[in-house]
């Protein structure tokens, strides 16, 4: 029974993390596309800042996962 609980825990965490990375990446792409220039030629900086934050979150999650998986880092 303990093995099933461990398996279910890993499965739930993996699905949640994969969903979080997918959501952050999709949001980053959408915000990047919303940035750019408006009709007057002024830059819309806030969507670009939001996209950089989303992409940074993706990078952080991936690097943290690598840190957890590679034992030489601890």
Helix content: over 70%
**Average pLDDT:** 94
Structural class computed from helices and strand pairing? mainly alpha
- Judging from the principal axes of the Cα atoms, what is the shape? elongated
Strand numbers in spatial order across the main sheet: 1-2
How much of the residues is beta strand, in percent? 5-15%
Largest sheet: 2 strands, antiparallel
Task: Work out the helix count.
Answer: 2
Number of strands: 2
Distance between the termini: 30 Å
Radius of gyration: 18 Å
Low-confidence stretches: none
Describe the structure.
The chain crosses the membrane at residues 50-70. Keywords: Membrane, Transmembrane, Transmembrane helix. The chain is mainly alpha-helical and 74 residues long. It has a domain at 24-74. 78% of the residues lie in helices and 5% in strands. The protein contains two helices and two strands, in the order αββα. The protein has helices at residues 2-34, 45-69; strands at residues 36-37, 43-44. It has a two-stranded antiparallel ribbon with strand order 1-2. A hairpin with a 5-residue loop joins strand 1 (36-37) and strand 2 (43-44). Helix 1 (2-34) runs antiparallel to helix 2 (45-69). The protein is elongated and about 65 Å long. The two termini are 30 Å apart. The mean pLDDT is 94.
